[in-house]
Design a protein that fits this description.
Keywords: Hydrolase, Metal-binding, Metalloprotease, Protease, TPR repeat, Zinc
GO molecular function, one term: metal ion binding
CATH class of the largest domain: Alpha Beta
Cofactor: Zn(2+)
Number of domains: 2
CATH architecture of the largest domain: 2-Layer Sandwich
Shape: globular
Strand order of the largest sheet: 3-4-2-1-5
InterPro entries: Mito/Outer_Membr_Metalloprot, Peptidase_M48, TPR-like_helical_dom_sf, TPR_rpt
Strand content: under 5%
Organism: Stappia indica
Helix content: 55-70%
Number of helices: 25
CATH superfamily of the largest domain: Metalloproteases ("zincins"), catalytic domain
Order of helices and strands: HHHEHEEEHHHHHEHHHHHHHHHHHHHHHH
């Protein structure tokens, strides 16, 4: 998923280049509100009780989605940094656009898809909705129905929480996981577009795929699945079948056009297929029951994805020693794979050994120096090591990560701890306030920001960040006075 952040951040000369981090954070919140967002809240029992749907952060999966979507965005005439792809921690098959800057995709889309083309086809179709300006009608529907979608802010600590399925108390208590929740996406049928708009998005997707010299077979395979579902029941298995109705005749017309492409028989990119297999195995291992993983990736399967899946399950269910041994086996097979080092760091951090986690996080970052999630993971480990000599580095690393992944509550909270332990109390209050803003707790954020302002020199960057928060007014939502 792309993280929730200002998409103007990398444009030279844009206002965002000169805005304070807090102001960019607030502007991102306003953009989410335009998509029907009420508040940003962390995952918890209350949120889940209200039907909250968790978002998931995983650097590896997000990088793959960006590489899938990049050529499609190019073909559509959309700047790659304009649209973030946000991963939703749901195993059913669903994807949708909530505004012109975000495509939400359930991890079930990835785990169900056997080939990259199936996911790329979905992304191409959703991009068609963006270029077709169909979101104007969607927002009107939101206003008329007074349905509020609540999307959780990204915690942004790094990879998926190992405890998402296993119920690990160490993860829930330590907060090292990478899941967040909102207080409920809109009803499943909310994103049901008119049939004409779906057809427009279909044709746009075919155009994008042809421009990028990719086959539409994956997209057709996905849509055929949902056309078959409509034959049996109105209570479809997957919400994608509800929001993207696919009558059989429409599918037939679409296939006729798709087969005319000179790239209909184009093979899948073997490198993307290999990465897809790895991410798919990883997501299944983190979210499915261990018995399911054992069935899908038995010991007799010596492939790298199978070994990856088994290592994740070992981390979730066995001792630290066994988990590290399993991950070290992966590292021996691919020493330069940054995600294996990240996984080792996560295993050590979440099992209560943050000092030992520092080295693998450093290695992951050295292999992928621009990865903000690795920076936040490393900063987390440096703070958790409880060594005051490491705090200046933790502060520097966390600030660097938050420059890119500015809506990370865990990044802000760890920065607040690092600053507070160094006696920088007012700056720590600003970091706490920014983390609370990312979580959607506006009132608490304002209290911390107001307290910080009293102890900061007027006009300094930290004072201005606090002032942004104190003066912030949540945007009005569609259909609400």
């Amino acid at each position: 998923m792309g993280s929730f952040r200002s998409t103007d951040r990398n444009r030279p000369g844009s206002p965002a280049m000169h805005a304070s981090p807090a102001r960019k954070l607030l502007r991102t919140g306003a953009a989410l509100a335009m998509a029907g967002v009420l508040a940003l809240t962390p995952m918890g029992t209350a949120a889940q009780a209200q039907g909250g749907i968790p978002l998931v952060r995983d650097a590896e999966a997000e990088a793959l989605m960006r590489d899938y979507a990049g050529p499609i965005f190019d073909a559509a005439g959309i700047a790659r940094q304009q649209v973030d792809i946000v991963l939703v921690n749901r195993n059913d098959f669903n994807a949708f656009v909530a505004d012109a800057r975000r495509i939400f995709i359930n991890i079930g889309v990835i785990t169900d898809a056997e080939t990259p083309g199936e996911v790329i086809g979905v992304l191409a179709h959703e991009t068609g909705h963006i270029t077709g300006n169909h979101l104007v009608r969607l927002r009107q529907a939101l206003a008329n129905a007074q349905i509020i979608a609540v999307i959780g802010a990204v915690l942004g600590a790094g990879a998926i929480a190992a405890g998402s399925s296993s119920g690990s108390s160490g993860i829930s208590q330590g907060g090292a996981g990478a899941l967040t929740a909102g207080a409920g996406l809109a009803q499943r049928s909310l994103l049901a577009y008119r049939r004409g708009e779906e057809s427009i998005a279909d044709r746009a997707a075919l155009t994008f795929l042809q421009k990028t010299r990719q086959s539409a077979r994956g997209m057709l395979k996905t849509f055929a699945r949902f056309a078959d579902q409509t034959l049996f029941s109105a209570q479809y298995t997957d919400p994608y079948a509800q929001s993207h109705p696919m009558p059989r005749e429409r599918l037939t017309q679409l296939e006729t056009v798709a087969r005319q492409s000179p790239y209909w028989d184009a093979p899948e990119d073997p490198q993307l297929q290999a990465r897809h297999d790895m991410v798919r195995a990883k997501l299944i291992a983190f979210t499915a029951h261990p018995n399911t993983v054992a069935r899908d990736y038995p010991r007799s399967d010596n492939s790298l994805p199978a070994e990856y899946a088994r290592a994740v399950v070992t981390m979730r269910t066995r001792s630290r020693k066994e988990a590290v041994a399993a991950i070290d086996k992966l590292i021996r097979r691919q020493p330069d794979n940054p995600y294996f080092h990240e996984l080792k760091g996560q295993a050590l951090l979440e099992s209560g050994n943050p000092k030992a986690a520092i080295a693998p996080f450093r290695q992951a970052l050295s292999l992928r120096p621009r990865e903000a999630q690795f920076q936040i993971w490393l900063g987390f480990a440096l703070v958790a090591a409880n060594d005051n000599s490491l705090l200046p580095e933790a502060e520097r690393i966390l600030k660097a990560g938050l420059q890119v992944d500015e809506n990370s509550p865990i990044g802000h909270s760890q920065l607040a701890i690092a600053l507070g332990r160094q006696g920088k109390t007012a700056e720590a209050d600003v970091a706490t306030a920014r983390g609370l803003m990312a979580r959607g707790d506006f009132e608490a954020a304002k209290r911390y920001a107001a307290r910080a302002q009293k102890n900061l020199k007027r006009g300094t960057p930290a004072w201005l960040q606090a002032d942004d928060i104190v003066s912030y007014k949540p945007p009005k939502l569609p259909g609400r006075s």
